[in-house]
């Protein structure tokens, strides 16, 4: 998709730009020449510290020093969704914003006590202030496709109905569903558009350099030659740079047909685990696991623990087992997320995971599986 035609003076506020998706969105906006129009909400004590945190992350996203030096401290708004006492102080600056891309969240499957206060309470407080703006044209909130909960029939279409919180697999997805519900119901003045990415893994040219999130699950499954999904089942994975392009398209396009979009591989670009096995083996110069692969039940995962050290290297077996159990819950859903709404907006077709998986493998060499796993257990 071409750089969206927005008026040159429009100010765009990014939250979560020190993270994986927000970093990729920022890198893309800088490449498209929007740098001077950007503001960033960053957790930091001072604007200078916030700017340094932002620059450190953007280096991981391949942004060159020249573009980094172009950013300046006045573009930083210091703020934390955990304690929103800063909101009244910064409200005048927030009222200058035309478009928000809200990527900030605690994106963790752990039992992190900050999940609800940040993802629901703090996000709502921020959105409530923004809903009072006369200037705001769009509040693009980044949700997650998995907030639909388990027991849905795949392919999944976008829907504003949510399962009961108790049915959600983890607190994170429950919180992401609740904030969408609250913003859509309680903030009628907010020009809300929700984008729900599916599973974001790696980057087409940088691989796992900026984040090893979820890639370690594939490494672990092939190293153990066992997991809870079948090789013939499919998984909906997109790279972060594609996700960023789609989010920018949805944030900047003057008119949209809907207020809720999947950002996903969908039917055409999803890959089967057998295809992923072959691409992974080819990138490693090895043979696919193929017939040696065993589909096992979640209760059988513990029987693999004796092999952890030999197959995946040094790791805390208790943590590995917990991680495998949590991720098996999502992998077993076997969900494809319909992306026809996104494509109808003129956003490019998503690439397939197997087409850039070799880049993820190369960028992960020298990084242990256990180290890479830490991305998802903050
Ligand atoms: N990664 C995926 O596969 C995926 C899939 C679907 C949806 N999503 C959604 O995409 C969004 C971004 O996820 P991500 O993978 O990029 O996560 P991430 O790498 O962990 O980044 C999270 C960002 O949120 C910021 N943040 C966390 N707590 C905050 C707080 N209390 N106040 C203000 N900012 C805070 C972080 O800032 P600090 O640097 O200060 O911690 C960081 O910039 C999330 O909404 C997530 O639900 C991600």
From TrEMBL:
GO CC field: cytoplasm
Gene Ontology molecular-function annotations: aldehyde dehydrogenase (NAD+) activity
Superkingdom of the organism of origin: Bacteria
Signal peptide range: none
Record-linked Pfam families: NAD_binding_4 (PF07993)
InterPro entries from the UniProt entry: FAR_NAD-bd (IPR013120), NAD(P)-bd_dom_sf (IPR036291), NAD(P)-dependent_oxidoreduct (IPR051783)
Protein known as: NAD-dependent epimerase/dehydratase family protein
